Description:
- Chain A is an alpha/beta fold.
- The first copy, chain A, has helices at 16-25, 42-51, 68-77, 80-84, 116-119, 121-130, 148-163, 170-187, 191-226, and strands spanning 3-7, 31-35, 54-60, 92-99, 133-134, 138-141.
- Chains A, B: GO terms for molecular function: electron transfer activity; FMN binding; NAD(P)H dehydrogenase (quinone) activity.
- Chains A, B: InterPro entries: Flavodoxin_fold, Flavoprotein-like_sf, KefG/KefF.
Amino acid sequence: MKTLVVVAHPQIENSATEAFLKTAASFDENVTWHQLATPFDIKREQSLLSAADRIIFQFPMYWYSAPAILKEWLDKVWDNYLVNNHLVTGRELGIVVTVGHAASSFQPGASQQYTIAELLRPYEALAHNLGLQYLPAFPIYQFDQQSDEQRQLLFICYQQYLAIPKLCHFKDEVKWFADRLEKKIANENDPVQRAKIEQLLLLLNDQQDELDDLYMSVKWLREKEDY
Amino acid sequence: MKTLVVVAHPQIENSATEAFLKTAASFDENVTWHQLATPFDIKREQSLLSAADRIIFQFPMYWYSAPAILKEWLDKVWDNYLVNNHLVTGRELGIVVTVGHAASSFQPGASQQYTIAELLRPYEALAHNLGLQYLPAFPIYQFDQQSDEQRQLLFICYQQYLAIPKLCHFKDEVKWFADRLEKKIANENDPVQRAKIEQLLLLLNDQQDELDDLYMSVKWLREKEDY
């Protein structure tokens, strides 16, 4: 699966969040990191879009929307040619949005009043109009105030958001972890370290097998119940 | 009441709709027509905003949002200085949005899936954040296909949207009409025409008096019911 991360940030060189996310994205050769800059080469932008399976709009929230450059890119690159030739039809559209307020403030009655999902409605409408599958958004709240542990989790979850074919499926998450451990084993020169990672991979696979068995049992019980 | 119409249209010279609306707006000396063009003189933009009682964002809908230039203007002009000095607090914010689809297509299950109100949520959130009163939006559907009669109605309704202090109050609408008739009488040289308009004004005022009497009666009946 090929993922295109379209990054819209007017001051990207000053953004610790974007630097962090760029590092996380760099571990996956199927992810293309694409920072928007004017003027746009429309044909090139369109071929990048059409080569992707998953398109991510990634931006800091400015006045409840993406910075102007994302809209400029949409207004210019998502043109009649792109629409009439179905260049993005059937792709997935995900949104990674960084915000300065806490998650709890985005709800009726709280300071921001509206949910992130509501504020992103125009992108959802775009996906609906052009036949893209709209993914659940990936908001990052108050990155500056996150602990090391929260950031470690963010690092993994963000990589998964870019790469896992079926989001929210636990089995795909396990497979994603197993694939990465296998890669790590192949590149590890220290035999002690390698043995440790092999142990971890074995454990993970065993647990997945056990989980599969449990699923089968549950399925069997349910079918029996139907009679 | 001073109204600032902030017009964001990348091809305004080709827009019959904007030409039509500009003509309608030109009849009112309290309305400032302000077409956005880069680069922005931020101080001048801010003083225009702060001098207005009602601010209107007016634009054609491109990909379920305003054209990029409105966002660029918001990102640059609605800055920390504007926020910290409350330059727009207490103003009203209205949205005039022109769309190429029919009104009926903006609802769940129809082709556009989302309501105009939902799609404009980011502007509503902006108003909420900065203490502006958000007015009901003024969408103009398929201007190209409107009949002369529909356009005459649009002409009046749009003028009212820019100028009437309390929107949706019938009495204020009548007052607005009466003011305009009085102005017309003062400028009319033909005595026959003037007599006709005076007749119309008299009729309008009589009907308003009758309506006021009816309101009083209803109020009196309701109060009586309470005992």
